[in-house]
Amino acid sequence: MTWSTVQRAVADWFAQRDWKPFPFQKQVWKAMAEGRSGLLHATTGAGKTYAVWLGALQALVGDPEGSESNRAPAQRVLGHDAIKNAAIPSRGRQSTAAPLTVLWLTPMRALAADTLKALQAPLDALAPVHGGVARWTAGARTGDTASGERSAQSRRLPTVLVTTPESLSLLLARGDAREVLSSVQLVVADEWHELLGNKRGVQVQLAIARLQGWNPALRVWGMSATLGNLEEAMHTLLGQAPGRQGGGSTEGVLVQGRVDKRLVVDTLLPDHPERFSWAGHLGLSMLPAVVRELAGTRTTLVFVNVRSQAEVWYKAILDARPDWAGELAIHHGSLDRGVREWVEAGLKEGRLRAVVCTSSLDLGVDFLPVERVLQIGSAKGIARLLQRAGRSGHAPGRPSRITLVPTHSLELVEAAAARAAVQAGQVEMRASPRRPVDVLVQHLVTVALGGGFEPEALYAEVRRTAAYADLPRAVWQWCLDFVHRGGPSLAVYPDYQRVVPDEGGVWRMPDARLARRHRANIGTIVSDASMVVQVLHGARLGTMEESFLSRLSAGDCFVFAGQVLEMVKIEDMTAYVRRAARGRPTVPRWAGSRMPLSTVLADFVVRQLALAADGDYRSPELKSVRPLLEVQQRWSALPTPGTLLAETLRTREGWHLFLYPFAGRHAHTGLASLFAWRAAQGEAGTFSIAVNDYGLELLSATERDWAALLPELLSTQARPAPGALAAPSTDPAPGADACDLRVPASEALAIRNTANAARADDAAGHPLPEAPHGDPERQALLHEVLASLNATEMARRRFREIARVSGLIFQSHPGERRSARQLQASSQLFFEVFRKYDTTNMLLRQADEEVLSQELDVAQLLAALRRMQGQQRVVRALLRPSPFAFPLMVERFREKLTNEHLADRIARMLAQLDSAADARGPAAEAVPRMQDVVPPDPPLRARRLPKAAASEPPAVDEAPVAPHDPLQSAAAEVRRTLDFSLTAADESAPGGGAKRRRERKPSRPLPRL
After folding, report:
1. Same domain, 464 and 537
2. Least confident of 9-13, 44-48, 244-248
3. How far apart are CA 108 and CA 106, in angstroms?
4. Is 933 exposed, middle or buried (0-12, 13-18, 19+ CB in 10 A)?
5. Please, which pLDDT band fits residue 1006 given cuts at 50, 70 and 90?
6. Which of 11, 492, 725, 1003 has its Cβ near the most Cβ atoms within 10 Å?
7. CA–CA separation, 643 and 926 (whole Å)
8. What is the mean pLDDT of residues 300-310?
9. Mean pLDDT, range 717-724, rounded to an integer
């Protein structure tokens, strides 16, 4: 192969730094030179950026005429003095700069600046010795870009533009979009795994299809470090290109960078692991060990799963080591941009000892001084664990180390399972959403703004994407009608007549006001309305969600940005605060979703339990948690890959069933509701359910022979002609894991009347999402799953996000932002109108589909149901809750009781269970049964018990607690733990923690606005 001058310059640049290209980098360079597209998958810190970027320079930078003949041989070596003394052409001379050639997509705005620096370094080094490179300019365009730079880019874009999917869509919405973007020859999707599985990835697919229509020879490359389905991920990114010019191949190239990189996954073991554990109960008891680990390293990232945990751990570490002030920092997405940039600069310069952070530092940021990563709690997935581990030793040849810090004893098993999965090379797969109508509707309006479209040509273009490859023409026609006149129910409203065809048949958006509103709301990231948090007469600290701040009164204290703040007033969507010297602060809760245990990690957890069942406790984690597992095995059994463990228990609360499918929290929610619904078919009754990542609990107030019911509950054969959405049930509060499923006898008759229920469902305008052709069993099971839940309310919550993305409601207008209450009211109004008058509305169907796929994880639910059918059932009748059943009971208790009463109950149960666990042989039978220990639930679900109930007489066989009884100190310890564990658990949906929040004394109201 004949080398170009750019290739020689790149080789010289590597040699000057004593670098040698990895084989995978050379493979990418060769594929790019041939005009091919592909996906590069390599370990974090292995050199993916240089592989793609230098390949782009070698393939796309033209050789200036006479460059080689006019250069002396000595000048071809890029020595330090040559680079230092060379005259670098001014980047300001835009008239000679090459046009926009490379679009570099990054999933996070925070990565844009670091990515730009990484791309700029080779340009600065190669420009003095190559005139073609000297004409290339680089810039970034994100939501953080200054207005002056944005104005300059409006006149002329740089040669390589680092941007986000949202900013790319804004470019496509320019009237001169084709003129500006048709020169693009390469699109790079950095961290493709972060975009692939959500609507932002679909947004990228549609944008690439648009660019390919303008330039069929467009090269497309993705980069990723943590993906299990590489071929599928590559084909999703590349789509079905319309053909390439210049003889380039249309087939993608999958390049796997196999670089030897040492990864250490270890665990910080608790001094005294408990035999009876619940989510978050270890909590800050691990703080001393964490502080010791931080003291022994130079720079450490302490990852937590949610922002509330970041606030708690940062404050706790700083309270334990106040001398670390200035060396300890906090980083999450709600902090002000200036704060985040200060923290990132401190990490790069090695000034910070530790940073407590969330996923805001998961991706792509190159912090060379970071030696180690701590993960508080389970990472819930192998891909996330690997991604975070890669933040340490982020350079070729340097080892990465991640230390897992369990927040409850069973997470020790997860830690051992995670290491085993990493050693086996197992990573989760991610799939693109299928045909999201809201994203397509938004794209139609964007393209109409960007020069307009002809429906047939755009339909063919959209179908070249993986997400819409099987888009039916009927759905396409519905989308066209929706953007043209708002569908049949909104046809009389001018604001929804957004796109109209002109005389030539080109569909455009003529209304300038609607155009400005659309551009202000482009994107698929949907969050609760936020308020700015600002010190009174001082600096801006960041943003917090309105749903939390609106519940605070003047004088209330809360933790944010690592500080204790006191609310002063709320004015113009800004919360003004002052730093508080005292007061018990509230830990804020952000809207979000609980992260379920991934299927891959769950499978390895069960394998670890199987090792323990065989007496193999060789791993440090299993040795530590051995007391818990031995009690579980002695009282019940340990789950294994070939068995399904079911436990039954009779207490004064009722008849309990505990099942352990290990299918993840979302799937267990659907399974628990399905099983309760099936149990109610034979005999109506009242059920309470609780779920976690390992299993589920069903509690019946009336007698149930759960062992006899198991074959019917686990059947994959659905009831004849079940009716969807017809079963009366009480949907859990947003984010709650436990709920009461009440099926009175009169309503149970309605459930059995399946034909009427199905007709009622059709009349309500909620046709079920279609099942794959030839799978009637799956379709029937979907009917049953939806029949067991209040799916209408779940769909109503999903519809709010869909309405925002599709342009039905707007989170912000030019010059103003709408509150969460306004958005909710608007979306609910549309939801009800469509249900009554537009029953074929595709946005309603999408809401149902997202409930199934995202909130209930129906695919995993059905897979778990079929897997359980093939497993050997191990049924154990318990005398008392097992170590696996105990956390499920606590999950249910914490939804009904205050911290104070819950602490007393848990302490009493722990005392009895520990006593039973200490007993051996026949003595264990003498321990009181748990039906004599666990009192029934209080009749009220209030935050605090009424005074009359505070002194209720003890249950039978219980003695009043003496003033100095050890149980009191145990309860106090549990109470302190609960204060942490409620925030340590993964964040729930909006409002999920409202009923747990402590009651505040009346305080002065906020000033009138």
Report:
1. no
2. 244-248
3. 6
4. buried
5. very low
6. 725
7. 30
8. 91
9. 51
Does residue 307 share a domain with residue 176?
no
Q: Are 202 and 433 in contact (CB under 8 A)?
A: yes
Contacts of 227 (CB under 8 A, 6+ apart): 41, 192, 193, 196, 233, 383, 427, 429, 430
Burial 241-279 (b: 16+ CB within 10 A, else e): beebeeebeeebbbbebebebebebebbbbeebbbbbbb
How far is residue 738's CA from residue 890's CA, in Å, rounded to a whole number?
10
Instruction: Provide the pLDDT for residue 165.
Output: 96
If asked whether residues 481 and 546 sit together in one domain, one would say no
Task: Assess contact for 56 and 32: CB atoms under 8 A.
Answer: yes
pLDDT, mean over the chain: 78
Q: Which of 475, 494, 519 is the last residue of a domain?
A: 519
Phi, psi of 357, deg, nearest 5: -145, 165
Residues 6+ apart with CB under 8 A from 429: 227, 228, 229, 232
Examine residue 974 and state whether it is found in any structural domain, yes or no: no
Q: How far is it, in rounded angstroms, from Cα 119 to Cα 48?
A: 12
CA distance 556 to 583: 8
Q: Is residue 803's pLDDT more than 70?
A: yes
Listing DSSP states for 116-167 in one string gives HHHHHHHHHHHGGG-HHHHT--EEEESTTS-HHHHHHHHH---SEEEE-HHH
Domains contained in the chain, number = 4
214: confidence class by pLDDT, cuts 50, 70, 90? very high
- CB 843 within 8 Å of CB 437: yes
Q: What's the predicted TM-score (pTM) here?
A: 0.79
> CB count, 10 Å around CB of 140?
25
Same domain, 345 and 300: yes
First to last CA, the chain: 73
* Predicted local confidence at residue 390, as pLDDT: 87
Examine the domain organization and report whether 296 and 387 are in the same domain.
yes
3-state secondary structure of 176: coil
Question: In angstroms, rounded to a whole number, what is the distance separating the alpha carbons of residues 824 and 800?
Answer: 7
| Amino acid, res. 712 | E
Tokens standing for 167? 């900013």
CATH of the domain at 293: 3.40.50.300
Name the pLDDT band for 383 (thresholds 50, 70, 90): very high
Residue 365 lies in a domain: yes
Residue 556 structural domain = 528-588+985-1009
Contacts of residue 117, Cβ cutoff 8 Å, sequence gap at least 6: none
Higher pLDDT, 589 or 59: 59
The answer on pLDDT for 369 being more than 90 is no
pLDDT value for 10 = 86
pLDDT of residue 708: 94
- The rounded Cα 648 to chain-centroid distance in angstroms is 34
Tally the residues of the chain.
Answer: 1009
Q: What is the 3-state secondary structure (H, E, C) of 16-57?
A: HCCCCCCHHHHHHHHHHHCCCCEEEEECCCCCHHHHHHHHHH
- DSSP per residue over 319-338, as a string? HH-GGGBTTEEEE-TTB-HH
Q: Cα–Cα distances in Å, from 762 out to 192, 827, 858?
A: 40, 22, 21
